[in-house]
TrEMBL record:
<dbReference type="Pfam" id="PF08207">
    <property type="entry name" value="EFP_N"/>
</dbReference>
<comment type="similarity">
    <text>Belongs to the elongation factor P family.</text>
</comment>
<comment type="function">
    <text>Involved in peptide bond synthesis. Stimulates efficient translation and peptide-bond synthesis on native or reconstituted 70S ribosomes in vitro. Probably functions indirectly by altering the affinity of the ribosome for aminoacyl-tRNA, thus increasing their reactivity as acceptors for peptidyl transferase.</text>
</comment>
<dbReference type="InterPro" id="IPR013185">
    <property type="entry name" value="Transl_elong_KOW-like"/>
</dbReference>
<dbReference type="Pfam" id="PF01132">
    <property type="entry name" value="EFP"/>
</dbReference>
<dbReference type="GO" id="GO:0005829">
    <property type="term" value="C:cytosol"/>
</dbReference>
<dbReference type="InterPro" id="IPR014722">
    <property type="entry name" value="Rib_uL2_dom2"/>
</dbReference>
<dbReference type="InterPro" id="IPR001059">
    <property type="entry name" value="Transl_elong_P/YeiP_cen"/>
</dbReference>
<protein>
    <recommendedName>
        <fullName>Elongation factor P</fullName>
    </recommendedName>
</protein>
<dbReference type="InterPro" id="IPR013852">
    <property type="entry name" value="Transl_elong_P/YeiP_CS"/>
</dbReference>
<keyword id="KW-0251">Elongation factor</keyword>
<dbReference type="Pfam" id="PF09285">
    <property type="entry name" value="Elong-fact-P_C"/>
</dbReference>
<keyword id="KW-0648">Protein biosynthesis</keyword>
<dbReference type="InterPro" id="IPR011768">
    <property type="entry name" value="Transl_elongation_fac_P"/>
</dbReference>
<dbReference type="GO" id="GO:0003746">
    <property type="term" value="F:translation elongation factor activity"/>
</dbReference>
<comment type="pathway">
    <text>Protein biosynthesis; polypeptide chain elongation.</text>
</comment>
<dbReference type="InterPro" id="IPR015365">
    <property type="entry name" value="Elong-fact-P_C"/>
</dbReference>
Length: 191
């Protein structure tokens, strides 16, 4: 059986199971009462890993949680269709399918063969973790004209191979690979 975690021991970025659902702790606030006999309370800001909902809940310090059966597996992106997005587990070579809700906006950064981390709960895929940066090819951008930098406007729009558009420096040309920060959707350098 998995070990139990007391509410007072839960820290930021920890995973725990509450009401048979896995949660990720986003923030912790501990309230210690000044009166004798008062109970220490732990307020957790937590994300439900199945629905992605975020909410606050207060627990007594002694409340116990199970450790969830979570694992991260490496998988390569295969394709997407009406059933969802399909990935191949790099160890077992089984196909894992994530629906649109589990995948979020990851398709903006996924190219065929891209390796990512898929989170599994009780052996079933529940979501994916994108790397901080991805490398994508520029499929269209206007050529940078000499003298354009005088106006101080040193970025131009560029369409990438997945269809998203970002701003890139003037020296970037069509066909070049660029690094994109996944969280901010901004240019992070040449690949």
């Amino acid at each position: 059986m998995a070990s139990l975690i007391e509410a007072i021991a839960v820290k930021r970025k920890m995973f725990f199971e509450f009401e048979d659902t896995p949660f990720h702790c986003l923030d912790v606030e501990i309230s210690t009462p000044t009166a004798r006999g008062g109970q220490t309370l732990v307020r957790l800001k937590m994300r439900n890993l199945l629905t992605r909902a975020v909410f606050d809940k207060t627990f007594k310090a002694g409340d116990k949680f199970k450790e969830p059966d979570l694992q991260m597996v490496q998988a390569s992106y295969l394709y997407s269709d009406g059933d969802g997005s399909h990935f191949m587990d790099q160890e077992t070579f089984e196909t894992l399918t994530l629906d649109d809700e589990m995948r979020g906006d990851a398709l903006d950064f996924l190219v065929e063969g891209a390796i990512i981390q898929i989170q599994k709960y009780n052996g079933n895929p529940i979501g994916l973790q994108m790397p901080t940066h991805v490398e994508l090819a520029v499929t269209y951008t206007e050529p940078g004209a000499r003298g354009d930098t005088a106006s101080g406007n040193v970025l131009k729009p560029a369409k990438l191979e997945t269809g998203i558009e970002i701003k890139v420096p003037l020296f970037i040309k069509e066909g070049e690979k660029v690094k994109v920060a996944v969280e901010t959707r901004e240019f992070a350098g040449r690949a």
